[in-house]
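Chain A, query sequence.
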Amino acid sequence: MESLHLSTRIERPADEVYAYAGDPAQLPAWAAGLGGSIELVDGRWIAASSPMGRVEVIFAPRNPYGVLDHEVRLPGGETVYNPLRVIPDGPDACEVVFTVRQRAGESEADFRRDAAAVEKDLATLKRLLERG
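Chain A, predicted structure.
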């Protein structure tokens, strides 16, 4: 199994990027893989219209380290763990790093497509946050 560490530099303070990217309500604006909407249902963040079907998104608890790891629970019960970090780079910029991990049984082509989608999501996050 393979992992890819994909990153983008964002010209905004790390705490602002962390707050935005870690707010599940903002996911539809930048994380296309979770679909166009997400809602809080009985204390759980549910993306009902994701390309994978109805999924639950669970972020790591808020922390001072920039860790935004999250799990996506798929309709079939499988949980996909997604490491995500916001790393400060001076007072006015940061690097966002998402680790894409190849799942058991996932083809190389599907893994590469997933990585390309994450790169696109990171570019969208950068564009949104640098626009202000």
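The chain has a mean pLDDT of 94. The radius of gyration is 14 Å.
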